[in-house]
Automatic annotation (TrEMBL):
Keywords: Cell membrane, Membrane, Protein transport, Translocation, Transmembrane, Transmembrane helix, Transport. Component of the Sec protein translocase complex. Heterotrimer consisting of SecY, SecE and SecG subunits. The heterotrimers can form oligomers, although 1 heterotrimer is thought to be able to translocate proteins. Interacts with the ribosome. Interacts with SecDF, and other proteins may be involved. Interacts with SecA. The gene is secE. GO terms for molecular function: protein transmembrane transporter activity. Gene3D superfamilies: Preprotein translocase secy subunit. It comes from Eoetvoesiella caeni. The chain crosses the membrane at residues 18-35, 41-60, 95-119. This is Protein translocase subunit SecE. InterPro entries: SecE_bac, SecE_sf, Translocase_SecE/Sec61-g. Essential subunit of the Sec protein translocation channel SecYEG. Clamps together the 2 halves of SecY. May contact the channel plug during translocation. GO terms for biological process: intracellular protein transmembrane transport; protein secretion; protein targeting; protein transport by the Sec complex. NCBIfam families: PRK05740.1-1, secE_bact. The keyword Nucleotide-binding does not apply.
């Protein structure tokens, strides 16, 4: 079974835009390293600025538009989710904790039983 719905970047202009965005990010990283004698605020500002410029460049490519569309659709989907109430969340958390404690006790009991069978009965160790 193959998935033929994979979308790739086919436009040369889109590839150039994405390569330029990547180059801007690399330039921001290099500038952060080269400007070691500058205050940290300046260095971080330059790096964040490079990320903003790279995002702006990538936004105008087709993959950037698809990403924005996907983000918008994801946000709208989370608004439609029916989230559990505080009471339901507390009850489910209690059930999970009780299950973990019960499984821990069961595994401890099985471990002790197997240890007694192997070391006490079969090998004769105390």
């Amino acid at each position: 079974m193959s998935n033929n719905n994979v979308e790739t970047v086919t436009s040369t202009l889109d590839r150039v835009k994405l390569a330029l965005a990547l180059l801007v990010i690399v330039a921001g990283i290099v500038a952060f390293s080269v400007l070691a004698d500058q205050p940290t605020v300046v260095r971080v500002g330059i790096f964040i600025g490079s990320l903003v410029v790279a995002a702006f460049i990538a936004w105008f490519s087709e993959p950037g538009r698809r990403t924005i569309s996907f983000s918008r659709d994801s946000y709208n989907e989370t608004k439609r989710v029916i989230w559990p109430t505080r009471k339901e969340t507390t009850q489910m958390t209690g059930i999970v904790f009780a299950f973990v404690v019960a499984m821990g006790a069961l595994l401890w009991l099985v471990d002790k039983l197997l240890g007694w069978v192997i070391y006490g009965l079969l090998l004769g160790w105390k």
